[in-house]
Amino acid sequence: MANYVHGFDPIEQLRLKEQAEFLAPMVYKEVDFGGCKNLLEVGSGVGAQTRILLEKFPALQITCVDSSAEQLAQARINLASFGDRVRFVEQDGCVLDLGACSISDSAINKAEGASSTRRSPICD
Asked: Fewer Cβ close by (within 10 Å): the C or N end of the chain?
């Protein structure tokens, strides 16, 4: 995705991690995925938000979806300590094919009332 506004360089990837950590107390103040076993994070990038969720909810497993191989490569490094609690899928988030489960952008929008440009966690 050549037009990605943040770019893929290491300085920007570090900035995304620092931003996530700084904003986490405000962003996740009222988020409760305690009843979820699996979470689908579309647009996971370098895994900055993923790390926060995995730390906050120790029973949670997350599938990270991103269209950028560079971002997912960094996410694998950033989230290595979580082992099999995190899975990585390089795919366009607008049309997901995850084997037994396929999710289209319109299904995500209908389920969450989300716009197609919003990062969309889906929980079961």
From this structure: C
Number of domains in the chain: 1
Domain assignment of residue 1, yes or no: no
Domain of residue 70 covers: 10-123
- Four-residue CA torsion sign, 67, 70, 71, 77: positive
| Average pLDDT score, the chain | 79
CATH of the domain at 23: 3.40.50.150
- Answer whether 0.85 is exceeded by the pTM: no
What is the tens place of the pLDDT at every residue in 33-64? Answer: 889 899 999 989 899 999 999 999 999 999 99
Task: Considering only residues 12 and 48, tell me which one the structure prediction assigns the higher pLDDT.
Answer: 48
Q: Which amino acid is at 90?
A: E
Torsion 20-10-72-4 (CA) sign: positive
In a domain? residue 69: yes
Q: What does the chain come to in residues?
A: 124
